Amino acid sequence: MFQNIVYKEITVKPVTKVAGSSITTSTLQPGSFRKLGFSVAQTMAVAQKLYEAGKITYMKLTQTSLSGCLPNRGKLLLSRVW
């Protein structure tokens, strides 16, 4: 089932990471409505809970990215809040 693989050469290249653009309240609110159907109040309640849990550094969301699992966790959190 498995075959032996032999690498003849490995090249190590330097990698530079560039942070993406910040997610701000003004981009989060329309995005959460469009993708999740959340109201502004629901969106900001989730942001507050994430801030209190130490998942984001500031409630107004200056993070450079959101985790791919955040929408699902946000819905779960909302179901517990409401």
Task: Kindly describe this structure.
It is a single chain. Helix content is 45%, strand content 0%. The longest helix has 13 residues, at 40-52. With 82 residues, it is mainly α. The N and C termini lie far apart (51 Å). It contains 3 helices and no strands. The chain has helices at 25-36, 40-52, 70-81. It has a domain at 25-81.
Strand segment count: 0
How does the overall form come out from the CA principal axes?
elongated
Q: Can you tell me the residue ranges where pLDDT is under 50 for at least 5 consecutive residues?
A: none
Strand content: under 5%
Furnish the topology, listing elements before pairings:
Elements: H1 25-36, H2 40-52, H3 70-81
Task: Please tag this protein with its features.
82 residues, mainly alpha, elongated, 0% strand
Give a brief description.
This protein has helices at residues 25-36, 40-52, 70-81. With 82 residues, the chain is mostly helical. It has a domain at 25-81.
